[in-house]
Design a protein that fits this description.
The chain is α/β, with parallel strands linked by helices and 273 residues long. Helices cover 37% and strands 22% of the residues. It has one domain: P-loop containing nucleotide triphosphate hydrolases (Rossmann fold), CATH 3.40.50.300. β4 and β5 form a beta hairpin. α5 packs across α6 and α6 runs parallel beside α7. Bound molecules: adenosine-5'-triphosphate. It is an enzyme of class 3 (hydrolase).
């Protein structure tokens, strides 16, 4: 489905991503972990073409998308929607408009300038918000919502693009544990129910272990681990994070409660599950 071949990115002589080759044969929930500066964001941003590649190929269904330009590049960007740590919504616009903005890459310029959405598009945006448990927020300004709600709006905007892949760059790093859980549960649900691929940069090991089918560990721009979460031993984690014998897993914990029934119930209620 997606293959990265010898993907490399240099910034002024410094190699942020160094000759990374990875295959993603089927949709799954992939977590990328590593210390700050390991190259996780640069890797995701290259896949989405927000950052140009210095060398290498990004093959999606056999076609190299790393060299696309103009409309073809925008079409690829709608196939692999990004979700960011800071949500990147338009704060003063209402929630429904923010979700509809997911269609901007596909619209004629004039229709986009005047926000000319069809009834079918509006109905779809509201249905997505409903699915994510935030339909009642549709008319509010995005800035009036909590961080967790804003991130779900960002996910709804991504879904509006009907992407094959969702690239999430530290999607829960700005959220408290309860909201972090709701957002991760939302991404997981989208992955399993829709069969979309989710690739998420995660800053904590426990989240990667809990949600991912596959974990990729990066260090200094290179892939140093690629396996199942149960293969992520403390020793391997040490290697990924470059920590010495004093490495303590708790230091990489978001503290999403591992077994908190009340939180799980709350999350399910919020998701309308
Ligand atoms: N636009 C840029 N210009 C110059 N250097 C950059 C740029 N973007 C990233 N880098 C450098 O590339 C390296 C990898 O950064 P990147 O943000 O990809 O790492 P990361 O693993 O996502 O870290 P973090 O979790 O802190 O975001 C770092 O040394 C960073 O300073």
């Amino acid at each position: 489905m997606l293959e990265l071949r010898h993907l490399t990115r240099d910034f002024a002589g410094r190699c942020a991503v160094d000759n990374v080759s990875l295959r993603f044969d089927r949709p799954g929930f992939v977590g990328i972990i590593g210390r700050s500066g390991a190259g996780k964001s640069t890797l995701l941003r290259m896949i989405n073409r927000l950052t140009d590649v210095s060398a290498g190929e990004i093959l999606f269904q056999g076609r190299n998308v790393a060299t696309l330009r103009g409309a073809e590049k925008r079409a690829w960007q709608s196939r692999c929607a990004m979700v960011f740590q800071q949500f990147n919504l338009v704060p003063r616009r209402d929630v429904a408009s923010n979700v509809l903005h997911g269609l901007l890459g596909r619209r004629p310029v004039l229709a986009a300038i005047f926000d000319l959405w069809s009834e079918a598009e509006i109905t779809r945006a509201l249905a997505i918000l409903d699915r994510l448990g935030i339909a009642d927020q549709a008319a509010k300004r995005a800035e009036a919502l909590s961080g967790g709600q804003q991130q779900r709006v960002a996910i709804a905007r991504a879904l509006m693009q009907d992407p094959a892949i969702i690239l999430a760059d530290e999607p829960i790093a700005s959220l408290d544990p309860m909201n972090a859980q709701i957002v991760m549960d939302t991404l997981k649900r989208i992955q399993t129910e829709d069969g979309r691929m989710v690739i998420a940069n995660l800053h904590t090991l426990d989240t990667a272990r809990r949600y991912c089918d596959r974990v990729i560990g990066m260090r200094d721009g290179r892939v140093v681990f690629d396996g199942r979460p149960d293969q992520l031993s403390t020793g391997i984690a040490r290697e990924i994070y470059g920590a010495d014998a004093s490495f303590n897993e708790a230091a990489t914990s978001t503290a999403i409660p591992a077994d908190a029934r009340a939180d799980a119930d709350y999350a399910s209620a919020m998701l309308g599950a």
